[in-house]
Amino acid sequence: MDAYLSNSRSSRIAQRFRGFLPVVVDVETGGFDAERDALLEIAAVMLDMDEDGFLHPQPAISAHVEPFPGANLDPRALEITGIDPDNPLRGALDERLALEHVFQPVRQVMRAHGCQRAILVGHNAAFDLGFLNAAVRRTGHKRNPFHPFSCFDTATLAGLAYGQTVLSKAVLAAGLAFDTREAHSAVYDAERTAELFCGIVNRWRRLETLEHAVTL
């Protein structure tokens, strides 16, 4: 976490996002119902900001998650993700441990940047936030760093910036690479979403810089 602890940059992200730390999150699940369907994977990508105000993704933090007792597993969802919940090689953690595996470094980076809360960034972010909040409620987790309802949705942002709302098409429209064979992995989708979000924010930053240069 040393990259986050430079005092010279500790407040840049907090200033840019009104005290929030944007954290890109993707979940893979056993269906679409956050209360009934299993959370199976979670990945988070934190962001750093350089001296010129440009965002850069950091390495992903992730966990495979054991289905909670009584969780529904829709075969159609498993076919899309390719996840076998019974595979012992997954190294899955129970929900509470999986959440803490992600939350602990988020809290550490949040403090380093002087942020009050983390804010979830996701592609169709309400889906990911819904499953995250449901898991927090089930486990009684008391140290969730994420804002419970505010989020940044890259589907909306990409629709504005590139005219595309599907993740793969938006990533390609942004001039980035997307491998459909790797899609529906929490880590892969979180990494691509992080690149997309940084690209949009940095595009705006370049416009700001250009506008400032023109007015001088």
Average residue pLDDT? 93
Distance between the termini: 38 Å
Overall 3D shape: globular
Outline the biggest β-sheet: 6 strands, mixed
Low-confidence spans:
1-9
**What percent of residues adopt helix (DSSP H or I)?**
40-55%
Write the layout of secondary structure elements.
Layout: H1 12-16, E1 20-29, E2 39-49, E3 55-57, E4 61-64, H2 75-81, H3 95-112, E5 117-122, H4 125-139, E6 146-153, H5 154-162, H6 167-173, H7 186-215
Parallel strand pairs: 1-5, 5-6
Antiparallel strand pairs: 1-2, 2-3, 2-4
Helix pairs in contact: 5-7
Describe this structure in words.
This protein is of the alpha/beta class. It has 7 helices and 6 strands, in the order H-E-E-E-E-H-H-E-H-E-H-H-H. Strands 1, 2, 3, 4, 5 and 6 form a 6-stranded mixed beta sheet that branches. Helix 5 packs across helix 7. It starts with 11 loop residues before the first helix and ends with a helix.
Features:
216 residues; six-stranded mixed beta sheet; globular; disordered N terminus
Short précis:
The chain is of the alpha/beta class and 216 residues long. The chain contains seven helices and six strands; from the N terminus they run αββββααβαβααα.
